[in-house]
Amino acid sequence: MSNMNVRGRTAIVGVGGVGWGEAPGRSAIELLGEAAIAAVKDAGLELKDIDGLCAATSTHAFPTLSVAEYLGIRPAFFDGTNIGGSSFEMHLLQAALALEAGICNAVLICYGSNQRTAGGRLVSMSEPQWHEAPFKPRHPVTAYALAAHRHMHEYGTTREMLADIAVSARQWANKNPNAFARGPLTREDVLNARMISDPLTTRDCCLVTDGGAACVMVRADRAKDLKHKPAYVLGVGGAHSHRSITQMADLTRTVAAESGPRAFEMAGLKPSDCDLVMLYDAFTITTLLFLEDLGFCPKGEGGRFVQDGNIAPGGSLAVNTSGGGLSCVHPGMYGLFLILEAVTQIRGQAGERQLDKCDVAICHGNGGVLSSQVTALLGSEAAL
User: Do the Cβ atoms of 13 and 226 come closer than 8 Å?
Assistant: First the structure.
């Protein structure tokens, strides 16, 4: 992928997010549709202008067929790649390639879920893994708890360090009016919360919410003439390593260590160039692992890196400024919301949580049980 001329050739020009948290009475496809229409309007386009479609959901066997029919569009390019929560970062690459090849002119990427108000629990199409099922793991938290325990064993990471990640996310969420979970949260609150799968308590786990999200991409030459400041796609890299957690070669090392360098090479950037770091925080341990595997701190140092507010407002590295999956929103497959926050920050529209400078943002998606990793780098015109 690194040899393809993708850098800066396409841009995100429209974003839409709806149903942040609870959206009673609305189905998953309705939330997706509302977000899609909002994104198209935000781009200054109409649905009839959309001729490319990428979608992945937890409720549709053939998502692009269902979404296209619901929206009344007939795309010339479509991609329903589903690798869990990182699907949407991979869709950025598929869309960029399709646009650059001239297969289509405007691609809609979209998602929706009503898992909170419909069932009050995680909605997943994930099938039980036959060699794990006899041990009755709780999907997916048991897998992430294994990774957390192994990291604690090998590197001296503590529950307090993991708790600091949740506290930092809440501090960012308190600056975001769209965040579902707001209010005070202390390290002690996290440690004393109900244990779900040792060492992860409810506060170490992401929210279970409703939500719909969408974005629109076009070629860069067209992006300059549309309503908002474009967020250019600078580089995307992907990797996946296993399906079941028992097949993960090393519980403390994800293949973000492969997807990240691919994305950085394509973009011609390095971690220190990033003004904003958006990481898929399904659990506190994922933030820690991805900070290490993407090169923001050495392996084994993630716990010490996140202490004392280092990734909170006012810290040295801005991580998950929306409040993330831990405190903002997590409707099952969260990856598209990472992109929405990055675009909002690059545009300078993030309100109280707006960074002083945001020309380069990294969005890192995770799917399965630390299985699929996709890293995308977005940037302003200044980053080209």
Answer: yes
